[in-house]
Amino acid sequence: MAEQAKQGGWRANKWVRAAIPALLLHCSIGTVYCWSIFSQEIADYIGYSKGAVEWAFSFAIFFLGMSAAFLGNIVEKDIHKSSLIATICFSVGMLLTGVFIMYGGSHQHSPVALIGIYLSYGFIMGVGLGTGYLSPVKTLMLWFQDRKGLATGLAVAGFGAAKAIASPIMQGMLNGLGDGGIYKMFMILAGVYFVMMFVGHLLLAKPADWHEPQNSADKPKIMDVLKTKPLTNYIGIWVMFYINITCGLALISQEKMIVKCVGLAAMAGVISTVSAIFNAGGRLGFSAWADTMKDRNTIYKMIFVLSIAFTALVMLTGGIKNGEGNGLLIFLVLALIFVVNAGYGGGFSNVPTLLSDHYGMGSISAIHGITLSAWAFAGLTGNQVATYIVNHTGEFVEHGTDAAGKAIMINPVGYQNVLIFTIALYILALVLCLVLVKPSNTKGAK
Predict the structure, then answer these.
(1) pLDDT tens-digit profile of 366-386?
(2) CA distances, 256 to each of 174, 264, 376, 415, 422 (Å)
(3) Which among 298, 259, 278 has a CA at the least distance from the CA of 440?
(4) SS3 of 407, please?
(5) Which residues of the chain are modeled with pLDDT < 70?
(6) Which pLDDT tens digit goes with each residue over 2-16?
């Protein structure tokens, strides 16, 4: 088969056939998290509010999760086809986003431009994100049977690290391309990411000794696989995964303004990069650590306990609203941001291996895809609920000016109140983790 590696030499090398292509795919699609770098520029260029444009990112995350859920079977059957779909959809979506931004620049306030960006960045790129995210995961676990967590963590870390790598590049392009730099950036990067992903698509292949059941009669239905354990077990995994993403997005979406609240506006870019490193480090570190544990679910217990502890500390001390000029409170707020980023990333990298331990490798791409629907719904709730809380509680106050001389408005009490929402959900996730998700006796199942 075209998707299977032939024995001998580089064709049977797990790094060439799994790790490198996974990084090429995930380091490309992971740039979706660079959205905050250019969202205001898009809004200004096409004549719409930032709030209106923000829905493009929410749609991208929603369609990432939903395409993964609905296209999981295609990934299961043929990673060669699914990785090509990912390559085409992601790069074409990015190119069309640039086209519609260019159109919006010459047709201010045009609904065609806004809807076009929704469709391009949200839907088309979203499908590329979902299939691209799923495609290398099972392949990695098949090549790295003994260190599945390390393997999947490596790839998913690429998704998290993409923000740290691409953000300064994108910022430099926006500053250096002059008038219309925002749409030129999208068009140039569409070509760059097409090449990266296409090379990954060509290299990606399953081990030659792994044979997918080709007859549907040989492959059990997804619900039959899930029912091999109490259904509440899977519900617990899905909900705690959803909660971890929702809480992560709620805090990460306000991260830039929280940093300004505690008087570190000048270091916002550096802190954003460091938090992205923690995000990527959590993806690799937590998943690799889980390889040494009898029950991978222990990692989720640790993530939720740490998140609850640091959230509680910042809540009790009023760290966000009282932090400016107080070194200890600034440290606690930054520690919370970094811990949540690490836990957010670790939750992503551990879910496929946790699922494989519980349900085996046979249908893991399809089951993982269905589970990523949690990401879709979290993408519509996490940052939106946080924004609602900030806009409807507390009070916005002026806090200096930006480089253009425009007043910076912050709402310290509103950002602090977001923590009430996140700690309640983290506690619920910990309870589900302890009560519903039972230890697996099938670690390393094939």
Answers:
(1) 898 899 999 899 988 888 899
(2) 19, 10, 23, 11, 17
(3) 298
(4) strand
(5) 1-12, 210-220, 402-404, 441-446
(6) 444 444 455 668 888
| The model's pTM | 0.83
Same fold, 1-206 and 220-446: yes
Res 72: pLDDT? 81
Question: Domain ranges in the chain?
Answer: 1-206, 220-446
CB within 8 Å of 161: residues ≥ 6 apart:
27, 30, 276, 277, 279, 280
Angstrom distance (rounded) from CA 297 to CA 440? 9
Q: What are phi and psi of 98, to 5 degrees?
A: -60, -40
Decide if domain 220-446 falls under CATH 1.20.1250.20. yes
Tell me which amino acid residue 104 is. Answer: G
Of the options 2.130.10.150, 3.30.420.40, 3.40.630.30, 1.20.1250.20, the CATH number for the domain spanning 1-206: 1.20.1250.20
Phi, psi (degrees; rounded to nearest 5) at 439? -55, 140
DSSP string, 118-173: IIIIIIIHHHHHHHHHHHHHHHHHHHTSTTHHHHHHHHHHHHHHHHHHHHHHHHHH
Backbone φ and ψ for 191, nearest 5 degrees, come out as: -70, -40
- Max Cα-Cα span within the chain: 67
CA distance 278 to 160: 9
Which pair of structure tokens corresponds to residue 46?
């096409």
